Amino acid sequence: MIPQNLIHKLPKLQTPLYFYDMELLQQTLDSAAKASRHFGYHIHYALKANFNVKILESISATGMGADCVSGNEIIKALQSGFHPGKIVFAGVGKSDEEIRLALEKDIFAFNCESLQEIEVVNEIAASLGKKARIFLRLNPDIEAHTHKNITTGTAETKFGISPLETELYLKQQEHFNHTELIGLHFHIGSQICDFDVFRELSLKVNEIQDHFEANGIQIQHLNMGGGLGIDYKNPTQNTIPDFKGYFETFHQHLKLRPGQQVHFELGRALVAQCGVLLSRVLYIKSGEHNRFAIIDASMTDLLRPALYEAYHKIENLNNNGNTDAVFDVAGPVCESSDVFARNIPLGKTVRGDILAIYSTGAYGQVMSSAYNLRSPARTLYSDEME
Ligand code: LLP
Questions:
Q1: Number of structural domains, the chain?
Q2: Distance CA 1, CA 4 (A)
Q3: Last residue within a domain, chosen from 271, 297, 327
Q4: CA 151 to centroid of ligand 1, rounded, Å
Q5: pLDDT-based confidence at 147, cuts 50/70/90?
């Protein structure tokens, strides 16, 4: 994951720096593509996880589609080689301009999240003389057993159409004659490692499909969202997620109708492990109770620990021996939450050492900010190194 030629460059490395292992990315994509092909499933990569053009180009080259959540993501996906006919557009708050753009670009489908959104999509499609293909994103009220901030399928979240609005839609759907309902969409959360959650979702989807059929509606497509988790604890040993087991769970439990197509919107599982944030130790300081390694990366480069108390494995690449030395690793930003880890065994660590913060390819660089007027981290791709 960290190649030898990079280790040799450590003293001169300009940090903080996002390093991407493009070979690992390719292996991960190949594994996902192979597993999905086995079941005849379609993958739409969730751009929000990482929208660096080089990464997008590697993904579009596999023939995968794209899951976009803004007009700008649609534009970026098209510029990076994704086929418009494989782009889905999700999000609870699509603006009129974004809806117009998506219709003009003739994307595959909108994942609609409210009755009013369907009305607006219908109106805008009518004004353009088009028919919008839509999925209903339904809220199945399922607990994903992941962090509460990345849970999206329970009734109290803002996501998806409630059973109440679904019934209203079923009564009014003939009015929306500039839309064509082609599928149902679900996404119940992210970083889900317990496959039972996906079994539960599949069973719920079976019930929902029966209900639609009882109302005379045949569903051509099911989009089961993303959510497959990765191994943050063992990023260097367990690099490629269990795509086969993930798809197998849906294969076993979803009751598909003849000819029905199944789609997924994977983000994290495809790109998380190929990214490593490298940061230099600026200072070592002793507090009353703990010792701090203050590093040059901060929550402006990687927000996950501050926002979700997320765990990322951290290693000292200078590897000075003496594994028992324990540190809190913190960034320079003026916020108490700008801490990457507490009490972790880094080994002997001194000013100038380089730390690797693993599993940062997804929701890392893309969630950066300029808070404290900090400069963005640099980027290095393994296939561009001398
Ligand atoms: N589809 C929809 C509708 C989504 O909202 C998401 C992620 C995905 C697909 C992709 O999910 P994935 O396969 O990556 O789990 N910033 C958070 C994660 C937010 C996920 C938002 N939605 C984090 O750093 O953990």
A1: 2
A2: 9
A3: 271
A4: 9
A5: confident
Average pLDDT, the chain: 95
296 CA to centre of own chain: 26
Q: Which of 202, 195, 294 is nearest to 246 (CA)?
A: 195
With cut-offs at 50, 70 and 90, classify the pLDDT of residue 219.
very high
Ligand 1 centroid distance, CA of 323 (Å)? 35
| Sign for the pseudo-dihedral over CA of 378, 379, 384, 386 | positive
pTM of the entire structure? 0.97
The CATH number covering residue 338 comes to 2.40.37.10
CB 111, CB 185: distance < 8 Å:
yes
**Residue 147's domain is classified under what CATH number?**
3.20.20.10
Residues 56 and 9 in one domain: no
77 CA → ligand 1 middle, Å = 17
Which residues have any ligand 1 atom within 6 Å of their CB? 46, 49, 67, 90, 150, 152, 187, 190-191, 225-228, 265-269, 304, 308, 363
Calculate helix-pair angle for 243-253, 22-39, nearest 10 degrees: 20
Q: How many other CB atoms sit within 10 Å of the CB of residue 261? A: 15
Binned at pLDDT 50, 70 and 90, residue 203 comes out as very high
Do 85 and 206 share a structural domain?
Answer: yes
* Residues 316 and 363 placed together within one structural domain of the fold: yes
Range of the domain at 218: 22-271
Where is the domain boundary, 254, 271, 288? Answer: 271
